[in-house]
Amino acid sequence: GWACIKNIHTVPHWLRHLDEELKQATPAEGFRLWLTSETDRNLYEVFLKKCNKVMFEPPSGLKYKMKLLLEQHGGAATKKRDYKSIKLYVGLFLLHSIVQERRSYVPQGWSKWYDFCESDLRTAMQLIRYTEGSNTLKIHWPLIQGLCEKVGYGGRIDNDNDFEKLELLLREFFDEKIMTSRWQPMFMNVSFPNSNHLEDYLKVVEQLPDTDTPNLYGIPASTNASRDVIFCRNTLKELRQSYFSGGSVQNYEKRIKPIINLWNKLMNATIATRLDSV
After folding, report:
1. d(CA 105, CA 261)
2. What is the pTM of this model?
């Protein structure tokens, strides 16, 4: 048979013991051991090199993140078969997608990279279920905003300006206005209806652009040029580190120097194109 151990990133140092056990074990023919994990720098690298690795990366971009979230958690969203409940989840999914995608625009989106992840989403979903389970018919928006700020996403932020950005997003996606029949989220040219059917919300998500622009997140269009500059600088830095780290300098020069020259040309051309389009 096969065995599967999930979430090994929660016990990364245990992999050393697992490695020793597997060295001494004699597995049956056809046996396979599956391990699942999120990305973690503390995972035992020696052990990982012995494994066949399969990487699953969620789709990038607001449209594809929203489609994935609606497909994965559509059951929870439609459990009560009430448009108010569904819209609560739609607002949360938009918030979760946006806080993650804004990381592509450091330092304009956020001041730095924050590890917003699935656990933040699960925490917020629990808050929604708690709200739905209360006896009151009125949604307590400040409570949801405050808990998401202090317990959920805000727990990862350590910059005052970023806190203000998060507060703005929380007020946008957890507010009574999302319950209107033609709610149009900020910076988006789409409107979400009041519908009890998940398919109607998926149709709206399909109208979102396939490729994100900074404007979609309320960020100036010139941010793309800045992001390209940072990316190019980091790439050149890594190439230079490879060039000067050990081995034969002459050998590295033959292999790396043409790449650096080409990259410099591409960087200059890309930046010029971006600036012309702004």
Report:
1. 26
2. 0.68
